[in-house]
Design goal:
The protein is an alpha+beta fold. It folds into three domains: 241 residues, DD-peptidase/beta-lactamase superfamily (Beta-lactamase); 91 residues, Lipocalin (Beta Barrel), CATH 2.40.128; 82 residues, Lipocalin, CATH 2.40.128. It is built from eleven helices and 29 strands. An eight-stranded antiparallel beta barrel has the order 14-15-16-17-18-19-20-21. Strands 22-23-24-25-26-27-28-29 form an eight-stranded antiparallel beta barrel. The termini are far apart. InterPro entries: AmpC-like (IPR050491), Beta-lactam-related (IPR001466), Beta-lactam/transpept-like (IPR012338).
């Protein structure tokens, strides 16, 4: 009998020693990110076995007054917001007030009646094909520095759109507009603004007192971390005039998100139905299981399933990731865009999750004997972004037209590779004849699609063919094309003298992830062009008006 206290004492000491070791590791990670208390910084939270076992802060939440980040500092969430907008839809479905199978136009009849029905589930899992409003604003010459936009402005912009990127359910294309429209559905079905609905149905019951959707730009947010970015070694603070919620627009704290994490980790939680709803993986029209749920990505990592989503906006980043099998969640919130919240979360994750040796051995079996079949120039669909794939010393490498250096790729299967510096990014090559896609790049669940291209030298002999004034009624904007020093130059509001370069016949780009494809009539005269951009917008028609 006397031996039990001794054993208990040893176990407690061992546990305490383990905790001390983890605390030291967490602190080291924080210290590598912020070198001075006068710099902007971050907060991290680690939830393990139902408890917030670590909460750490570094840096300043307000450089003007040199106020340090503290345990209850409020940060912007950006796209981490999407899981909460999804949760609002899940609650309304549980109440019987809508179904994810409902036609979106049942609630938003102002949307164009496309040939294929867009359902609520297509908005949730980013397969609707609806164009990304951020890209549309860029193409219209929107001045982010001096203008702001609201949900109503985005809704009116979308009601003018007549084209989709893909048939609903065909493929996943990440689009913020999906979640702006979901916010509108929440408001029209519930009869109250989404910030009120979420407060009543989620935040109050979970006692998340520091979490809310922003409802106006003038409200005072106590203990708020101000966002910062750097320009020429000087910190600057972005002054956003935008108030648009659904895809983003929320703020929260480490403590509150730790409470939210338990929804995903505790199978007996009163809100566990939301975990099932948000992480549910729909299938594409082809029958392929999706890696994006309904507001979160469902991604494998070292043999475990993770639920995760990151956020990024000018001056901030965020990351929320859970592994239910380990009863583990990691939250990273920053107020400086150069601090990579995603990478930090995986560094912390690796303290709890070790490499699967058996899996590594299997990867060796997939090392291809011939890398030549993957080499070539690939261009993103609906974009002018190009990717060069080449091999050097038996290693496949990739470099994009935006990149500064080539990234080594490590074999995963016979036709897929992952980045040496970021294993969550996977390149998968396809060789089927007639396939629209030759390469998919998976950024942790967000898929980007590429086709192999053969570039030509000087394919367009007469640049005068393309000059003139063009108008798009979907964007309500004029574009002017002219010749400047024997180059084709594009100008539109807040964008002057953009030099367009050519690669194939009647197609131009400017290394801005935007492609301009010109159309000719039966006499061979240029009469219009179509703009595609960032992979999430295509076929915006501009008609020649002179």
């Amino acid at each position: 009998m006397k031996i039990y206290p001794l054993i208990v004492s040893v176990l407690i000491s061992s546990s305490a020693y383990s905790q001390i070791g983890l605390q030291e590791s967490f602190s080291k990670i924080l210290n590598t990110q912020v070198h001075s208390g006068s710099d902007p910084g971050l907060s991290i939270g680690v939830v393990k076995d139902g408890e917030l076992i670590y909460r750490g802060n570094r840096g300043s939440m307000n450089l003007e007054y040199d106020l340090p980040i503290n345990s209850s500092t409020v940060f912007g969430l950006a796209s981490v917001t999407k899981q909460f907008t999804s949760a609002c839809i899940g609650i309304l479905e549980k109440k019987g007030e809508l179904s994810v199978n409902d036609d979106v136009r049942k609630y938003i009849p102002e949307l164009t009646a496309y040939s294929d029905t867009i359902r609520i589930e297509h908005l949730l899992n980013h397969t609707s094909g609806i164009r990304n409003h951020n890209v549309l604003l860029n193409l219209s010459g929107f001045d982010y520095e001096h203008q702001g936009y609201t949900n109503k402005m985005i809704e009116e912009l979308m009601f003018r759109q007549r084209g989709l990127n893909n048939a609903p359910g065909e493929k996943m294309l990440y689009s913020n507009t999906n979640y702006v429209l979901l916010a509108l559905i929440v408001e029209r079905v519930s009869g109250i603004p989404i910030h009120e609905f979420a407060k009543q149905e989620i935040f109050l019951p979970l006692q998340m007192s520091g979490t809310f959707y922003k409802s106006n730009l003038q409200e005072i947010i106590e203990n708020q971390a101000y966002p910062y970015y750097k320009n020429s070694d000087q910190y600057l603070q972005p002054k956003s005039l935008t108030l648009c919620v659904g895809a983003g627009g929320m703020v929260s704290t480490i403590q509150d998100l730790a409470k939210w994490a338990k929804v995903f980790l505790d199978p007996d939680h009163e809100f566990s139905f939301l975990k099932n709803f948000i992480t549910y993986q729909d299938t594409l029209n082809s029958g392929k299981l999706m890696t994006h749920g309904r507001g979160m990505f469902v991604s494998p990592y070292k043999g475990y399933t993770t639920f995760n989503h990151s956020g990024r906006d000018l001056g901030m980043r965020s990351q929320f990731i859970c592994i239910p099998e380990k009863d583990l969640a990691i939250i990273v919130l920053t107020n400086f865009e150069d601090i990579n919240a995603v990478n930090i979360s995986y560094r912390i994750l690796d303290l709890f999750v070790k490499d699967n040796i058996e899996k590594k051995e299997k990867q060796k079996e997939h090392f291809p004997n011939h890398l030549n079949k993957f080499r070539g120039t690939y261009q993103e669909l609906n974009s002018d972004l190009r990717m060069e794939i080449f091999s050097k010393k038996d290693t496949l490498k990739a470099i994009s037209s935006f990149g500064r250096s080539a990234t080594p790729l490590v074999p995963k299967t016979a036709n897929s590779f992952y980045r040496l510096d970021s294993p969550s990014i996977v390149y998968t090559f396809y060789s089927e004849e007639g396939s629209e896609v030759d390469l998919e790049v998976d950024f942790g669940g967000a898929i980007f699609y590429f086709e192999r291209v053969q570039l030509e030298s000087n394919p367009n002999q007469n640049l005068n063919d393309y000059t003139g004034n063009y108008y798009s009624d979907e964007l309500d904007v004029n574009y002017t094309l002219s010749l400047e020093n024997n180059n084709l130059s594009l100008s539109y509001p807040n964008n002057e003298n953009i030099i367009l370069t050519e690669g194939v016949k009647d197609t131009f780009g400017a290394n801005r992830r935007t492609k301009y494809s010109f159309n000719r009539n039966i006499k061979g005269k240029v009469v219009s062009f179509e703009v595609a951009s960032e992979g999430t917008v295509k076929e915006i028609l501009f008609k020649k008006i002179n």
